[in-house]
Amino acid sequence: MTVKQLSMPELVDACRESGVPAVGLWRAPVQEYGLARTAKLVREAGLNVTTLCRGGFLTAVDPAGRARALDDNRLAVDEAATLGTDTLVLVSGGLPAGSKDLHGARERIADALAELGPYAEERGVRLAVEPLHPMFASDRCVVSTLTQALDLAERFPAHQVGVAVDTYHLWWDDRAPAEVARAGAAGRIHTFQLADWTTPLPEGVLNGRGQLGDGAVDLRAWRGYVEAAGYTGPVEVELFNDALWSRDGREVLAETVARFLAHAV
Amino acid sequence: MTVKQLSMPELVDACRESGVPAVGLWRAPVQEYGLARTAKLVREAGLNVTTLCRGGFLTAVDPAGRARALDDNRLAVDEAATLGTDTLVLVSGGLPAGSKDLHGARERIADALAELGPYAEERGVRLAVEPLHPMFASDRCVVSTLTQALDLAERFPAHQVGVAVDTYHLWWDDRAPAEVARAGAAGRIHTFQLADWTTPLPEGVLNGRGQLGDGAVDLRAWRGYVEAAGYTGPVEVELFNDALWSRDGREVLAETVARFLAHAV
Which residues sit opposite B129 in a β-bridge? Predict the structure, then answer.
């Protein structure tokens, strides 16, 4: 998503040019290019797929909406398996229209994980519950802290359900470093993502994630937290940013690699 | 601030018309109308002043900036005393330019409270540390949760330093209700403020607070939390909202009273 302006073949080429050995993919561009075609493209290029984003949106109350969500998440698991990644990231979903019941919504996510975890395991895929910044709690994700994500994940085996640790969502929370250690000790850090925090936030607050080094997050400290917790998996850079999307994608990828080396290594 | 389009005399009249017995004031409009003049106006109208907003911005590193902040906060304490309110609300401040050190910034707030607490006590004023939503952590307030605010406040006597509980900033946090109980047991809920959470957030995210009943917050449950914690003080409604500010202030105040009665009583 950091360079969503690139087509799938352009992305693969740009990763090779920039020395990026692995990439996280999003479902919509994969579906647009074709699932089997994408899987073949990345496999032949020797590009590893770190994660597939995203399943989730599991908070519907009505049975039909809930069944649709579960069907879609099973499809997302299948897509992840086809792409050769072992991790499906979940954005859990916000409050249903008119609801004020955060606790109930979180419990419905647990119910869904109980159905999806075994399905994913059979296909070699782990689910990564991603806590999103509290500013998304009503409309996108009622799981707002790493504590909440782990409390959900720990109801299930670690090889079925873990968490996604994203600096953009967690940087402000003084409890998060200890929770990273908790997650690592349980083998539940299923992916680690970097973005910086910059202000002012744009309208809707979705597409204002900062390029690495531009903001308030001590990225090197965060790498230290996950490494001290035993995490040895890939480090993803996930920037939703209108300004970056308006530029040449190859240039943005090269810049991101440089920023990564300057601020996160 | 909910009806900042009203002049000070208009505000006093509108409160009388709407049956509002007390009002929280902000420093800028008070200074504009004149401190002594405002104090006289509200006193003669029989209108109680619940709180003065806001002191704070206590995170500067440089000695000159720190001295200026302390001077300004002492002035704010004096203003509160003159207005006849016992509570000064503090918005603690964000990260200094270029800093990524949230912990250090929070410690500088503690240092400032140690100087300001006794000064305020001598003048019959309590300080209320207000945790702001985590989306303000970098540029406005590094105190993001009620837990953090209480951890700061509890270093000092409760009659010097407590907290402001504002539903807008805390509604998403599943730990907050227990922390309200903790605050109440210690006599540290120095004010209670209502606003609703609505999306999409506007650019800059400052002026998008929802009218009561328009959003995701269970306001009645929150009144229950503070009442169960022993709070018997005023309930303030603080809405930063461009749409409300563009309307007739008297109409907005009457609407707010009606919403309060419908959603928070």
Answer: B90, B163
pLDDT tens digits for range A217-260: 999 999 999 999 999 999 999 999 999 999 999 999 999 999 99
- Could B201 and A201 be called an inter-chain contact, meaning their C-beta atoms sit closer than 8 Å? yes
The secondary structure element, H or E, covering residue B24 is strand B22-26
Helix (H) or strand (E) holding B131: none
Kindly list the residues from chain B whose CB atom is less than 8 angstroms away from the CB atom of residue A144: 172-173
Residue B87 β-bridge partners: B126
User: Crossing angle of helices A63-83/A35-45, nearest 10°?
Assistant: 30
Mutation for B interface: A102, A152, A196, most B CBs within 10 A: A102
Q: Which of A95, A100, A101 to mutate to test the interface with B (most CBs of B within 10 A)?
A: A100
In whole angstroms, how far apart are CA A234 and each of A229, B118, B145, B225?
A: 14, 51, 31, 43
In this prediction, residue B113 carries a pLDDT of: 98
ipTM reported for the complex, 2 dp: 0.96
Mean predicted confidence (pLDDT) in A71-78 = 98
Domain B8-259 grouped into CATH 3.50.50.60: no
Amino acid at residue number A140: R
Q: What is the DSSP string of B206-263?
A: SSBEEPTTSSS--HHHHHHHHHHTT--S-EEE---BHHHHTS-HHHHHHHHHHHHHHH
Domain boundaries, chain A: 8-263
Distance CA B142, CA B102 (A): 6
Q: What's the CATH code, domain A8-263?
A: 3.20.20.150
Average pLDDT over residues B81-96: 98
Q: How far is A41 from chain B (nearest CA, A)?
A: 38
Q: What is the mean pLDDT of residues B210-217?
A: 98
Q: Interior CA angle at B54 toward B204 and B31, to 5°?
A: 105
Mean pLDDT over residues B193-213, rounded? 97
Q: Are A105 and A148 within 8 A, CB to CB?
A: no
